[in-house]
Amino acid sequence: MSGNVYIRVANDGTFLASLAELPGCTARGTSKEDALAKIRAAFRDYLELLTLRGVSTEHWKGLDPAKFVAHEWDMTAMHVLPPDEKPLEEHELRDFLHQMEASRSALLALVRGLSADELERKPTETAWSVREALEHIMLTQVSLLSRMERWPDHEFATLQAVHRMAFQRFTVMEPSDWVDHPVMGVRFTTRKVMRRILEHEYEHLDHIRQILASLGSQRPPE
Fold it and tell me: Residue 146 above 90 pLDDT?
C-alpha cells in the first residue's frame, strides 16, 4: 500500500517531509529527493520506536516505503495537510496519546544520565547543544498547545488558556523557588520572567489601543 509524503521548504532552506498516514513520522533533506529517501528510512525507524514502547503499529504495517508518493505541500492552505482537515475519530485521539507517550519515553531514555557538560556541549560552534534542543521542544509544545482553543471566538479562549498556564505556574511557586539559568543562550531569572510577562502584555495593550484608534474604533471606558 502506498503512502503520501508532503514536502515543503523549511525556513532554513532544507526540505521537510511529513508522512500523511503516520503523524509524527518526518524527515528533513537537502532536496526533495533527499527528503523522500530519508522519510522512507524514517518510517521503519519510527515504527520500531513505537513497537519498542508498546504502541500497536497495525494501522501502518501495510504501508510500503518504496511506494510512497511525494506531493508538494501547499503552504497557501495555512500549513494544513489534506488529511488534517478531517474531523477526528475516537481512535485517533487514543493513537495520538499512545504515540505521544512513546515519543517522550524515547526522548527521556536518550538524555537521562547525561552530565551537565554533555548537555551543554555543542558539535560545532553554530550547532545547538542537547539542552538547547530540549528547550526548543518544550517552548514549541507550549506554543502549539495554545492553538487548541478557538480563536478569537468564545471570549478569546486561546489568550485565556495561555494565561491559565502562566497563572497556575506562579500559583504553586514559592519565593524560595529561585530560577536562574540560560535559555537558548539568554539568561533568565524568576524576576526577569515575571517582569517581562507584565511588560510585554502592557506594551501590546497600548499597541492595540493605537491600532483601534487608527481605525477610528470607539471603546467604552475601562
Answer: no
Number of Cβ within a 10 Å radius of residue 24: 16
| DSSP H stretches of helix in 11-89 | 32-52
Q: Which CATH class is domain 1-83?
A: alpha beta
Of residues 216 and 218, more confidence is placed in 216
Length of the chain: 222
State how far the Cα of 160 lies from the Cα of 115, in Å rounded to an integer. 38
Per the confidence metrics, is the pTM higher than 0.90? Answer: no
Which of 116-143 are b and which e, b meaning 16 or more Cβ less than 10 Å from the residue's Cβ?
A: eeeeeeeeeeeeebbbbeebeeeeeeee
Work out the pLDDT band at 64, boundaries 50, 70, 90.
Answer: very high
